[in-house]
Design a protein that fits this description.
Distance between the termini: 22 Å
Shape: elongated
Order of helices and strands: HHHHHHEE
Structural class: mainly alpha
Helix content: 55-70%
Radius of gyration: 17 Å
Number of helices: 6
Oligomer: single chain
Strand content: under 5%
Length: 182
């Protein structure tokens, strides 16, 4: 932390890894549900929602790959969360494939639905695995979520999806609303 107190750490509340992952899980699940409500006659909105979902999933995976799983392996001495990591990797493999398919193509919806199922499975498995580990080592998980949030904010600042708008949630029924920073 620097002397002036303007560090990234001071801008974030302390949050446990479990709470961070729970917020992230709810955020991603909310985007899945919003996508299901998008009218097929609104292709621009559908495209924006797909890009938002891809961005959220890629950020989730990047945080796990660079922060969570390496620390879990280091402190718990084994590759943890193997099942949830497996379902995450299955879902991530589908993103490049989906980017090549026209979103109007029925094949896109079939693959996209499968990807959502993989990620929902991953999120449930991860939540259960992290809860078990957190009970064993509360001290380890107490501040880890803060570092994961800082990393998430850094990743959001380097957007790959110009059509995705991380500051605005697009509700297909009532227009745009400002998204709370979580």
């Amino acid at each position: 932390m620097n002397q002036s107190g303007n560090s990234a750490e001071m801008a974030h509340q302390k949050i446990s890894a479990g709470d961070f992952l729970d917020r992230n899980r709810r955020r991603i699940t909310q985007f899945f549900r919003l996508f299901e409500t998008v009218d097929l006659r609104a292709p621009e909105l559908k495209r924006a929602m797909v890009n938002e979902i891809f961005m959220q999933l890629e950020i989730h995976a990047a945080i796990e790959d660079s922060v969570l799983y390496p620390l879990l392996e280091k402190y718990f001495g084994r590759k943890v969360a193997f099942e949830s990591l497996k379902s995450m990797n299955e879902g991530m493999k589908r993103i490049p494939e989906l980017k090549k398919i026209n979103q109007e193509d029925p094949e896109f919806n079939r693959i996209f639905d499968g990807m959502i199922q993989n990620f929902e499975l991953h999120l449930r498995e991860e939540q259960a695995e992290i809860a078990l580990l957190a009970r064993a080592r509360e001290d380890f998980f107490a501040d880890l979520g803060t570092w994961m949030q800082i990393h998430r904010d850094e990743l959001l600042s380097k957007l790959k999806y110009p059509i995705a708008q991380p500051g605005v949630a697009q509700n297909p029924h009532s227009g745009h609303k400002r998204r709370k920073s979580v």
